[in-house]
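Fig. S4 source data, part A: sequence.
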Amino acid sequence: MTSTFDEDNLERLSLKLCRKLTRSTKMEQKAIRTLAIVLVVFLACWSPFFSLNISNALCIRYDHVGLLCRISHQVMQVFVWLGFLNSFLNPVIYTIFNQDFRRAFQNIMKNVFRCCCC
């Protein structure tokens, strides 16, 4: 009688552990996916700026006059603002893909608008 009781307890504990591990694994996968998206967006937003900045520095250093060395100020400004856009996109990405962040962000926004509207 004691052995079946121990086996039942062991089986129940094993199932609980499997559920916890599964839940933990799902949360980790979501976190990895969110971080991967943040990284890709970061690279997409900042790579043009840094690429042009490095090429511009090389052109100045070695007095080149090629096509890459004739970058207009407007193009540089667009790439700077593309980099700034990344700062706007991070909270949007976290809000879309992370429920805890979404709740916290909603609470902050409610408090901000409540204070501003009073």
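Fig. S4 source data, part B ends here. The chain has a mean pLDDT of 83.
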